Amino acid sequence: MKEKNTSVWFWAELICNILIVVLTLCGIYAMITNHASGTGLTDSGWKNLKYFTVLSNIFCGIVAAVKAVFVLIKKEFPVFLKLAAAAAVGVTFLIVAAFLAPLYPELNLYQGGNLWFHLIVPLVAMAEFLFLGSKEKIPFRYTVFSAVAALAYGGGYLANILINGIGEWPHSNDWYGFLNWGLPAGLAIYAGIVILNWLIAVILRFCNEVVRKIILTRKE
To answer: How many angstroms separate the Cα of 98 from the Cα of each of 27, 36, 101, 119?
Structure first.
């Protein structure tokens, strides 16, 4: 029975992580073949790499690819990387679903590459982490590591503006409009997103722990 459970876990991890890689590649293809600019928080081709959405999803895809290799060679994969990846795309999903999509319905934020990166990949990645994230209890400090993604991106975003200036639309360096209300407001938004990134990691860790305990209880 134990060998059967191990086999099921092996195939579930492998298939789910390969699925995340495939979905990420679909999103990248949709992104680089996009020639529309300035609509739905998208740009033309590889210029989309400036967005946190795209970078976080690519990071998630890379982590999933490496995890799949670790599963195949039966090596333990650092769970904090899976948590960080799931939390990063979770930020994208939540901000778009709860804030940007209702606020700007005319932008259609679920078309083209955004359908994959705003919805499909984040949902699959978070679900995969909830059910397959870890067989052991995840240390709480890992949630702090997860906030590094938003912290690093926000730091680079603000540094670019301070060095090169805001610029003018459609070539603005403030493509998210964080500084529309001034630098203090921009810094507050930045801090809020970092905190949101951490909170999503906390929630994912908590939900994974609940699922893990349910599975352990059923095995007894």
So the answer is: 21, 25, 7, 12
201: Cβ–Cβ under 8 A, 6 or more apart, which residues? 83, 84, 86, 87, 90, 142, 143, 146, 147
pLDDT in tens, 55-82: 999 999 999 999 999 999 999 999 999 9
Q: Is 54 exposed, middle or buried (0-12, 13-18, 19+ CB in 10 A)?
A: buried
Residue entry with tokens 């699959």? 124
**Whether residue 78 has a cis bond before it, omega within 30° of 0:** no
- When mean pLDDT is compared over 72-76, 186-190, 210-214, the highest value belongs to 72-76
Contact in structure between 107 and 42 (CB atoms under 8 Å) = no
CA 46 to chain centre: 19
pTM of the model: 0.90
Residue where the block lists tokens 């333990």: 76
Report how far residue 164's alpha carbon sits from residue 152's, in angstroms, rounded to the nearest whole number.
18
Half-sphere exposure of 132 (CA within 13 A, CB side): 24
Q: Which residues contact 205 (CB under 8 A, 6 or more apart)?
A: 83, 138, 140, 142, 143
Per-residue confidence at 1, pLDDT binned at 50, 70, 90? very low
Q: Which are the contacts of 150, defined by CB distance < 8 A and separation ≥ 6?
A: 52, 88, 91, 193, 194, 196, 197
